[in-house]
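Meet our chain:
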Amino acid sequence: MTNPATSAVRQRSGKCRADTITMAHGSGGKAMRDLIDDVFVSTFDNDELSKLEDQARFSLGSLSNAGDRLALTTDSYVVDPLFFPGGDIGKLAITGTVNDLAVGGAIPLYLTCGMIIEEGMLVDELRTITASMRMTADKAGVKIVTGDTKVVPRGAADKLFINTAGVGVIPAGVNIASHRAQPGDIVIINGFVGDHGAAIVDARGEMALQNTIETDCQPLNGLIQSMLEACPDIHCMRDATRGGIATVLNEFAETSGVCIRLNENALPVREEVRGMCEILGLDPLYLANEGKLVAIVPPESAQDVLEVMRQHPTGENSAIIATVDASPASTVILSTLFGGERIVDMLVGEQLPRIC
């Protein structure tokens, strides 16, 4: 009989039988072990995670075969509410980290998961969130290989905070960077903007609005790999999360020292989102997204990239929205629906708190 203490894969010890999280679930004892085994290990199960070491271990040879550089990112998720139309904090955590790797040209491979849980949270809610994380990770083709759990007293958190870190490999020849935008380049987005921010506003129920807007939260690594096959020399790319596409375009313009001319007529915005923005005095350019990327590509490759994007499920509504000029440098200028122009600046303050 195998000795559990020396087995390469430790046997799971038990089941979490409590209805709510207590401080005992963070004590390091049996209650914590049962919670981790029952809720996390059984859901995220894979060869690396099941060893339950303090770190996951990988072959350097297998990583170097996939590319010539490692990519590493981390992010924390504190969305309110935890569940919203089309998603939840777990789906958001996996998607956000996968996309942060992918927009740099990396192939996402492995994720970590750190959870800070408030005493009193329902265990069934935690099960639902971890199941959503596993489903999203499977869709993105990544594994959750190590993690950490902390429990804090009531009032010290807002039910649940999640931190995820991700590791990926960047193939040789891929050089996506925010300083590479050049005059003549074309700016493309993969669909409607502002859906996530609008869905969060609706989910809070503070505005008494009735709509059917769902979050756009989705992994983008499959789409990006198709884009790189069509154009290995994509100059810039970033997912437009907090601060919306206005923030991303300003970052590109400032870092590259160029002018980006944005065409409002070409910008894909759902009528429901546009209507909500008009009622609340918001601007779709600054609304958060969790499944939208902004890419800057050489002009000779723009149509090829656009066609490939529209053939992918996460890019069916892709559109060319802007061009890159030399001057005025470090500026984003919007050609409005009414034929005028205005400068689009960085977001000042916080338009929508707690959206990711």
In short: The chain has two domains: 23-170, 186-343. Residues 186-343 form a domain with the Phosphoribosyl-aminoimidazole Synthetase; Chain A, domain 2 fold (CATH 3.90.650.10). The mean pLDDT is 92.
